[in-house]
């Protein structure tokens, strides 16, 4: 569906330049099953959780989602491979991690306060009390400090579960189906509040991973969805949608379909023939001039360059380069190997080929790989006189993007199409015109 080629060893192309928090390297987990028969649940899984992201681990029942989460938390020592936390090997419980469980896991003989304070063993009384009260406040349980779990509804128990995890101010919050024991409305409420707190930076956590088998929940919450199956990661989806996400947007449905197709075994990534719907596969917003500039720099450095070095040299943050890098990768001008950008043969030909041959290469790549450019060309080709108003495209794009995003998507496609001499744009009346 997307033409972006993902690096095969590191599942995190959106996160280049961000700090890795937990890295799993070729992790395997084999349990002794019934009658001592070995059961391999994870088989050489590599995955990195980066600073700033929410990752959903999606998969069928029994595929090893909880096992993967427990290995990340250091609750299980894997039978193969290794786990690192901020570059240091994990031995025993992973530092900086707190967990939230489906079953709430509260001690029935302790009050809410007592349960939350449990997360702070070893902290002085007064400090412990202050932090517990703060955490209880953040999750909206103030007033229930002295209540016992049996006096609370399911939703309130899970709030206490979150408070007990957050009171530790964890770097990483790992959640194992935290909403699936709750009724639909309570789950929705808690999910929304968690996202609001996350977006507002109301707690110190830098990254979250959530296990779920609910596709909609994964698309609502995550920046990245990893689909687990057959002992490994079957596929990955990037969710580049602003929050809060509109469940009714076509793009949302497109992502759910894509996740479903990976779950059920259809290959979604790497389908070169179909760049997918422009409503789901947004164009990285980078003008051609910027992509050309990047390609020139990389070419001048032997056709491969480390992104952080490049950013440093240019005086940018690595993140500033991301849309430009994403655009080059989407078009097929470059590929990423971990954090190194490497020009493809087409990328080299584009940079070195001179103006007209360069334009021809770009035109072909944009038509093949950029969903919105392709859609616009098809629509113009099917119109009476090869001419359509930008209002037409904006109206369609608004089904998947905000007003502002829709305009920027169209402007990017026009910029790419004009450079490739595929189309013209008549700014006076806002018409897009197929190039003659
Ligand atoms: N400690 C253990 N000993 C033996 N087998 C185990 C152990 N823990 C998990 N398993 C088995 O490993 C497989 C994966 O379990 P896991 O709980 O990780 O799956 P899951 O994807 O989280 O499933 P679910 O969605 O149903 O919770 C299951 O077959 C389970 O029975």
UniProtKB/TrEMBL annotation:
Domain ABC transporter: 22-255
InterPro entries attached to this UniProt entry: AAA+_ATPase (IPR003593), AAA-associated_dom_C (IPR018632), ABC_transporter-like_ATP-bd (IPR003439), ABC_transporter-like_CS (IPR017871), ABC_transporter_ATP-bind (IPR050166), P-loop_NTPase (IPR027417)
UniProtKB keywords: ATP-binding, Nucleotide-binding, Transport
Organism domain of life: Bacteria
Cited SUPFAM superfamilies: P-loop containing nucleoside triphosphate hydrolases
GO molecular function list: ATP binding; ATP hydrolysis activity
PROSITE patterns reported in the protein's UniProt record: ABC_TRANSPORTER_1 (PS00211), ABC_TRANSPORTER_2 (PS50893)
Pfam families: AAA_assoc_C (PF09821), ABC_tran (PF00005)
This protein's name: AAA-associated domain-containing protein
Organism: Actinomadura barringtoniae
